[in-house]
Amino acid sequence: MQHLDIAEVAQQSGIPASTLRFYDEKGLIASTGRRGLRRLFDPGVLERLALITVGRAAGFSLDEIARMFAPEGAPRIDRQMLAAKADELDRTIRKLGAMRDGLRHAAVCPAPSHMECPTFRRILKAAGSGAIGGRKKRKSPHPPGNQILTQPDPGTRRN
């Protein structure tokens, strides 16, 4: 059987070699050996990478994608998980559609300023409440009444 080295897999899949190494280390794909310093892969890795790419495009995490494969590597895709992700995408599409419509209105609104436009004000209110923008309320490490008012660092990872 002909094996592909990492450069060939990168070229044929369009996925950088660094990402292929990362996927190999995470167990999403498995190299079959080495030719010198280059990792070798079974040609079937290209289909697996296509499945990973589709999963990433749909918004699945790498851990969720990893669970979509049986231990021996065959796809084992949970249909309920697919349906739940489709529902999540529907909600995101609705939110984005509402945002698009609001922004288009604000772009042509006859109000003297955006701050005087009722539609734009609704967008601001929704953003401030966390309804848009993906903000999630986090539990404070401080007891009620002892809140420390600070702005989170934009580089801070939120779960």
Features:
elongated; 3 strands; 6 helices; 50% helix; mainly alpha
Number of strands: 3
The average pLDDT value, as a whole number, equals 83
**How much is the radius of gyration in Å?**
23 Å
Q: Which blocks of ≥5 consecutive residues have pLDDT under 50?
A: 139-159
Element order, helices and strands? Answer: EHHEEHHHH
Report the end-to-end length measured between terminal Cα atoms.
Answer: 44 Å
Q: How large is the share of residues in beta strands? A: 5-15%
How do the strands line up in the largest sheet? 1-3-2
Largest sheet: 3 strands, antiparallel
Share of residues in helices: 40-55%
The helix/strand class is: mainly alpha
Shape: elongated
What count of helical segments does DSSP give?
A: 6
What features would you describe in this structure?
The protein is mainly alpha-helical. It contains 6 helices and 3 strands. The chain has helices spanning 6-13, 17-26, 45-58, 62-66, 79-108, 118-129, and strands at residues 4-5, 33-35, 38-41. Strands 1-3-2 form a 3-stranded antiparallel β-sheet. A hairpin with a 2-residue loop joins strand 2 and strand 3. The model is unreliable at 139-159 (pLDDT under 50).
